[in-house]
Amino acid sequence: MSILNRKKPTILEDLAFLSVKHRVYLGELFKALVSARENGKSRCLDLTIQFRGSIGSNVIFLITEHSKVIVQFRVPEELLSRKNICFESWMNNDKIRKQMYKQDSMPHVCTMVQDLRYGMKRVSVEAEVLEPIESSSIRTRYGSRAVVTNVWIGDETGKVRLCLWNEPEVSLMQGDMLQIKNASVSMFKGERQLLLGRSGTINLLPRQTSGTQPQRALLATMVQAREST
């Protein structure tokens, strides 16, 4: 068991590292701490947070995962009462970037929507189209025009907005199953969203997956696929 007993300026950095290592969103972990302070115990995905008491103006928490002790540490009471914390700013340091790189270098597996967190890169997701797409033309901060296409996708664990920039116009139907590779997770107005980089790809999965049917490239062959049905 490791002990984190640092002063207020670094506690959010400690929490940010824990959120990356255990694949939870920092904002959700912080809310779980507040809930544990009020109710004695709370959960954040596989993590269990227990309120262990107070020492002066600090609150003591114990975090376990499947009954295994992860860390015990102190959090100032004042921090727990803060509103509108910009959690993303605490994800930007060398220690956290190294941990992200280490985890992103592991073999790719599909990530569930509930496990997507800010800063993840080279993410693979399989999800269903939940709503019709929305496209709009916007002016970027560099003065150029861009077409942004948004579509809500989801799996059994939650939903997330997929944001495509300057992609060829596509026609998606509610219920279409998508396989997304090499995406990154960003934040916009407090909500997670998936973005495709230069190496990102989207494939349309057969509605009735047999395990042997080939996947169809969405952006390149979608129209042909619909014409053949």
Explain the layout of strands and helices.
Blueprint: E1 2-4, H1 8-21, H2 26-39, E2 41-44, E3 47-55, E4 58-65, E5 68-76, H3 77-80, H4 94-104, E6 123-129, E7 134-139, E8 145-155, E9 158-165, E10 177-188, E11 191-205, E12 216-217, H5 218-228
Helix pairs in contact: 1-4
Note down, in words, how this protein is organized.
The protein has 229 residues and is α+β, with helices and mostly antiparallel strands. It folds into two domains: 2-100, no CATH class; 107-207 and 215-228, Nucleic acid-binding proteins (OB fold (Dihydrolipoamide Acetyltransferase, E2P), Beta Barrel). It is built from five helices and twelve strands. The strands form two sheets. It has a five-stranded mixed sheet with strand order 1-5-4-3-2. A five-stranded mixed β-barrel has the order 6-8-9-11-10. Strand 4 and strand 5 form a beta hairpin. Helix 1 packs parallel to helix 4 (94-104). The radius of gyration is 21 Å and the shape is elongated. The N and C termini lie far apart (58 Å). The relative contact order is 0.11.
The oligomeric status of these chains comes to single chain
* CATH architecture tag of the largest domain: Beta Barrel
Mean pLDDT value: 76
The helix content, as a percent range, equals: 10-25%
Q: Reading side by side through the largest sheet, how are the strands ordered?
A: 1-5-4-3-2
Q: What can be said about the biggest beta sheet?
A: 5 strands, mixed
The percentage of residues in β strands lies in 35-45%
Distance between the termini: 58 Å
| Radius of gyration, CA atoms, in whole angstroms | 21 Å
At the fourth CATH level, what is the homologous superfamily of the largest domain? Nucleic acid-binding proteins
Could you tell me the CATH topology label of the largest domain.
OB fold (Dihydrolipoamide Acetyltransferase, E2P)
Structural class: alpha+beta
